[in-house]
Amino acid sequence: MMRLSKVDDQARRTKLAVYALAKAANDSDFIKLKKAIKLKKMMTAKLMKKYGRKAERVATIAQKNYIKVASSTSGSSDTQKK
Question: Is the pTM of this model over 0.70?
C-alpha cells in the first residue's frame, strides 16, 4: 500500500472517475484506450519473449557494475574532505 499526498490522491480518484464515467457512457475513446492498453501488454510480452534472456544478462551486469561503483565511492571519505 502506498501513501499518497492529497493532490496525488485527488488526481488518482479523478482519473478513476473519468474511466468509470467513460465506461458507463460507452465512449468510443474509452474503447480505443482499452484496445491500446491490451495491445501494449501484448507487444511488451512479445518483446520480453524475444529479448528477455539477453536483457536479463545486460541488467545483471549493469547492476553489478553499479553496486561496485557505489560501494567504492561510499567508503572513501578522504577524498571528500579536500
Answer: no
55 Cβ neighbours under 8 A, 6+ residues apart: 48
What pLDDT score was predicted for residue 52?
96
Q: Per residue in 16-60, pLDDT tens?
A: 999 999 999 999 999 999 999 999 999 999 999 999 999 999 999
Selection from 34, 36, 4 nearest residue 19 by Cα: 34
CA distance 68 to 29: 48
Number of H helices, E strands in the chain: 3, 0
What are the domain boundaries of the chain? 7-72
Query: Could you give the CA distance from residue 82 to residue 78 in angstroms, rounded to a whole number?
Result: 7
